[in-house]
Amino acid sequence: MSRYKCEACGNITRFDVTETRTTKSFYHYAISGQLNIEDVEVVRSEIDSVECRWCGHGKNIVLYES
Description:
By secondary structure, the protein is mostly beta strands. It has one domain. Helix content is about 0%, strand content about 65%. It has no helices and 4 strands. It has strands spanning about 1-5, 15-30, 35-50, 60-65. The protein has a two-stranded antiparallel ribbon with strand order 1-4. A two-stranded antiparallel sheet has the order 2-3. Strand 2 and strand 3 form a beta hairpin.
């Protein structure tokens, strides 16, 4: 399992992650017009930035295997 760690302050639990995703979904409209989105599949996912919640920056964030 991959985890983030802030090398500046030691945080391993709280991060703000900005991510761009492309998804494929099944849209099911009821006769009344209400939309239910089902079967969401992530086609592509890209992490744009990671910031530490404790010290407030993303300068020393590393990804490691736990």
